[in-house]
Hints:
Chain B: The chain crosses the membrane at residues 88-105, 117-139. With 111 residues, chain A is α+β, with helices and mostly antiparallel strands.
Amino acid sequence: MKKQQQLYKGSLNAIIMKLLDQNGRMYGYEITQKVKEVTEGEMSLTEGALYPALHKLEADGFLDVELERVDGRVRKYYKLTESGIKETTTKMEELESFIRNMQNIVNLKLT
Amino acid sequence: MKTLSTNQVKQIEDFLITQYNIKYQDTRDEVIDHIACEIEELMTSGYEYRTAFQVTFDKWNKHLRPHSWIRYNDIPTYLARQWFKRDIMSVLLAMTIGLGFPYLFKDLIEKYSLANIIGGSICLANILLGAFLLTSYFGSKGYRVNQLKKDTIGCAAISLFFYTMFIGNFTYKLLPLPVIMMLYQIYYIAEIRKTKSYKPL
């Protein structure tokens, strides 16, 4: 599991952007739970990795923030901007190509 | 799903302030909601509020305590970690260019007596860049903004000192420091432009 976390690390931004693309807007805790749910607990997104990634995506102009008062506290919702949507498509293509290449290497048969 | 009372949310906020000195609202709001959600989840699975509070803060401790490097000694680790590499790289790059530039162009600087013009103008530019950054982000608050504002004041002050001490007597050997300060100022402006203003609800 620990070794797998290292493999996921390089795709963190792509994972976050894909989730936001699918769900419209999400808050930090919701993102961590969604990742856990989708990967059936195989991958856990720590707060220490999530928030720096969200801040960077926001600084790069790929995310917008909406504040809302929920249950007596302020909730920060993140959603993709126009450029964020385009970037998600690019990132997904890159990720799919990477996965294809990895599969080709893993399935390589010596003749 | 159990929900925390307003009083319990206030307790989380107070703990963040007293225990971790989280002084800026944007960071506090972000962390309070996440911690509250985790406590609620634990309470739903049968934990008492006090125990859930303890378990959640034990987990968050490594992210909330101040970063170990002196430059970030009042900034939560999870925030400082994202700047650490960039800041180190910028220092190394500024040092390399700053130290290399005057020596590379030593002959040219001496032949045309450019040291005073270059040294004086760079020092003045550093002071102006500092003033520009401070006035542009006067009302902005946040860990990164405040750190960059302090840094830019430092660079401007060193440049002012250099200007008053050495104007008229600059040689190429005195140029590295103003050049390094100028590169820092450019980096600080680039970094502060990435920060977002926060309007609390």
